[in-house]
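Dear support,

I submitted the protein below through the web form. The confirmation email said the job was done, but the results page showed an empty box. After a refresh the structure appeared. I'm attaching both so you can tell me whether what I see now is the final result or a partial one.
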Amino acid sequence: MIDIHLHILPGVDDGPKTMEQTLQLARALVQEGIHTAIATPHYNDEFPQRPAAEIRERVGEVQQELERHAIPLRLFAGHEVLISPALLEDVQTGRVATLNGGRYLLLELWNSMWLPDTERIIFALRTIGIIPVLAHVERYRAIQQDHSRLKALLQQGVIAQITASSLIGLQGRTIRRCAEALLKEGLIQCIASDAHGLHTRPPRVAEGLQCAARMLGRERVHQMVEICPAAILNSTSIF
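What the results page shows now:
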């Protein structure tokens, strides 16, 4: 599996606090079957907004530690960016890290409300060649209540991602049901871990993928955890 949504950099956001915790998480990810991942620390007002250049530097430091400890995980840089009116400027100035420096951007929406400018901002990103990958779409209340909102965004060319552990109920019953329904309706292109640590938001990827495979079959799940993420990592076309 290639994991396109992961909080693994030590001391950056609400992921691991120390390098040792980062290494522990990395070992767990490898045990879950993840061989490549994109570190996507939050880019919002809750944490210091660390620029793309700093994220790339920190990813390099973690990669050195992974290799020193013989942990077979390849790590790349990105951000999980909260949607805002200032987003376009942050992308154009290079402050925001797209996924592995390519044309895909991990975009987070508001959980409890629908920003009126959502469609306009996504359209603006598309006009400059950026393809939003919507993070954990099963968690947004507006999409839980109305799947047509996600369908409309998919028509704009976005990619939809769900979290593996949502499928085993780790985020609650409502989120689990939404994740299952979106999968069955064919509205999801990627599954990721969105892991933050071993105890807070653990990976639980293998269990989640088993649930997805029972619904869709192993071949379709392979598309969502290897083929689609590889295209994102390499900035190539998914469709």
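Response: this is the final, complete result; the empty box was a page-load delay. The domain at 2-233 is CATH 3.20.20.140 (TIM Barrel).
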